[in-house]
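does this look right to u?? pyridoxal-5'-phosphate version
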Amino acid sequence: MGMTQNEMVEKNKKYTLSSWKSQSSWNPIAIEKAKGVYLWDTEGKKHLDWSSQLINVNIGHGNQYVNQAIQDQLAKFCYVSPSIATEARARLGEMLNEIVPMKDCKAFFTNGGAEAIENAMKIARLYTGRQKIITRYRSYHGGTFGAMTAGGDPRRLANEPGLPWIVYVHGPYAYRNPIYRNKTVEEGDSVIADLIEETILFEGPQNVAAILLEGYSGSSGIMQGGKVFWDRIQEICNKYNILLIIDEVMSGFGRTGKWFGINHQPQVKPDIMCLAKGITSAYVPLGAAVVSGEIASHFDDNVLWCGLTNSSHTLGCAAAVANIEVYQNDNLIKRSEEMGKNLYTELMKLHEKYQVVGEIRGIGLHYVIELVKNRGTRQPLSPFNSPLTEPMQKVAKILRENGLSTFVRWNWIFCAPPLIITEEQIQEGITIIERALSEAEKYYLE
Ligand SMILES: Cc1ncc(COP(=O)(O)O)c(C=O)c1O
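got this back:
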């Protein structure tokens, strides 16, 4: 310990690899301490965590209650084989049963979100005897081989051809999808769902195991369908006996102002839910594929061909139990809804003030600001699936220099702070974003 900032960065770069980038472009800040909604780098500079890191540290950094629960478990033991029973695993399974919108569900625990998706897809295939999975182009489901194919977002392209049995469909995106031209959002959502049904008919419904959708769209740009869309998805699943896999890895655990993103559509009945991120707020890695009672009972007499050395890791389960207690005891789900309203109001003021803000999308503490060169043409400030061009580079630089830690993709700025954020801290973030927007506004074309 005791490295200088330069040493830390240099050795991180020399001996380790960083995700989703060419390594020479990696220019990290070096963090020494984190508490609440703030991070401090080795030079003592304070950074406001405006994205809960990767939209996962939902309860904020350094929560003493969770730290203590992890230490208590550590003092007893931290791991036993997945075929051994533990209290932490029992308690977590029971708690999940109470909060997920599925009856008599059972959880298969993984190390993270992508593994939850991999196992959900396998379970869907084992249960239905069908092969194909329908998934959105604008979605992300993880970076492992199968999950990366399942995500339609361009991140999958480096892994092509990937798995053969994934079928992509267009999804709701009223701001840009041409299907919505000259239509209301509801009419567009309805056509999108009709096209999904048509795709299923082309693919053969008898071959389709599941439709896989994020409970609330996340890093692909937070573009979410409304009630009309979800009603039709449920109808299609019922009509053709297709399972509905809801990916709550990012949208779960209070992010959208409810326990799960799909709780905004209570009529929807998931058959499998994928959890990770906020389940432990990353205090220890953990994920889960949670299956309905009906699917679970199928495996009473059929082998569950799934396994991971670290499945049901005791430390991870203990961290998750403590996290769920924090969400409950500190009322964080309600808080996300309330602070979300405050954040939305502030973001809408930016939308009013700066022409360069094309659209604000999201709910709870889960928003994206979409920047455009012109509101009429909706030309993105930096093109889709390309390296950041000058205006967005400047935006990213201003945010970083002013101590706002978040992620910027193409023409989007993500706003997803920890659920413990206060109104004053929201204001602090908005002030920094405003600085970036006044620079971006110079690139607006009248
Ligand atoms: C919706 C969604 N699903 C799955 C994943 C993959 O989770 P992990 O990175 O924990 O494997 C992510 C990660 O960002 C995600 O946002």
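The two ends are 53 Å apart (CA to CA). idk if thats expected tbh
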